[in-house]
Target: BMP family ABC transporter substrate-binding protein
Amino acid sequence: MKLAAVTLTGAALALSAAACGGDKVESGDGGGDKKTVKVGLAFDIGGRGDQSFNDAAAAGLDRAKTELNIQTEEISAKPDEPDADKEARLKLLANRGYNPIIGVGFAYTNPVTKVSKEFPNVKFLVVDADQCKVEGANVLGACFSEEQGSFLVGAAAALKSTTGTIGFIGGVNVPLIKKFEAGFAAGAKAAKPDIKILPAKYLTQPPNFDGFKNPALGTDAAKGMLDKNADVVYHAAGGAGIGVINTMGGAKKFAIGVDSDQYNQPALSGVKEFILTSMIKRVDLAVFDFVKSTSDGTFKAGTKAYNLTNDGVGYSTSGGKVDDIKAKLDAFKADIASGKITVPTAP
Model:
C-alpha cells in the first residue's frame, strides 16, 4: 500500500525552497516489521523527467520503492548553483533523518565529501564520482565506463550510416563527456575505418551547464550536423539531447540516445522510429544496488565500477534497428570485456 506523503514544514521548507528548487516525498511500504529505510536523493540539473540521466536514477529509486521497505525524498538542483547549495541540500536530507543519501552527478563529489564528514553515520552515494574518486568510510562512488558503451553505439552509427558521415554532440565540455566522444569515435573507426566523423560539438562550456538541459541548443547543433551530411548523430547531452533526437527524427535521420533507453521515453514517442539505439548507462542499477546494500547491511565504501563485464553499460535494441548488426556489436563487446580491445577515455 502507499503511505501518506510526507511534507516539509517550517524552517526546513524555507531552506528547501531557497536552496533546492523543489522537492518530492513519497513512501513505499513493503509490509512486515522491518524498519523503514528513509532514502534521500538529490538530482542533477534537470531532475526527474529529463528523459535521460536523471530518469535513469529515478528508475533505480522507483525499483527500490517497489522491492524494498523504503521512504524517499527527491530534491532537484538549480542551474549554475554553487557547491554550497548542494551541501545545504545534502544537510537538509541528513538532518531530516534520511539515510542513505544519493547525489546524482559528478558535481556532488566535493559536496558529499564535505557533508559526509559531518554525518559519519549516514551512508552516501555519488553517481558518476568525479575521476572515480571518493573519500570517507561512509561514501560510495559509482563509476561507469561510458567509453565502452559509446564504442558499441559508435560502431552501430558507422555500420548504419548511408552517407558515410556521423557526428557527436556533447552537453557540456567536461572530462566525463569526453569519454563518450572518445569511445564513440573509436567504435566507429573500428567498424568502418573510412567513416567520416564530424568535429564534436559541445553545447556549452563550464560553468554554463545549460548544455545538459536546454533542448533548443541540441536542436541547433543537430541542424548544423544535418547541414554537413550527417545521417547518424549520437548525443550525450541529458535533457538538451531531446532537441537532438527530435531534430534528427524530423529530418528522418537516425539519432542515438544516451543513459536511458530513449526509444521508450514518452517525450520522444513521435520520433522513436529514428532512434537507432541508445548507450545504456545503468545508473538505475547503481542506485538500487546502493539502497539495497544499506538496507541489508552489505554496504562497502570506496568505488564500484559499472562496465561491459557486468552489464553496467551497453546498448539498447528497442525498435529492432540494430538487429542486423547485433552479432558484430556483440563481438566488439566480447573483445572489450576480455581486454582484447582497450577503449580510449579521451579523444
Remarks:
- The two ends are 50 Å apart (CA to CA).
- The chain has ten helices and 14 strands.
- The longest strand covers residues 165-172.
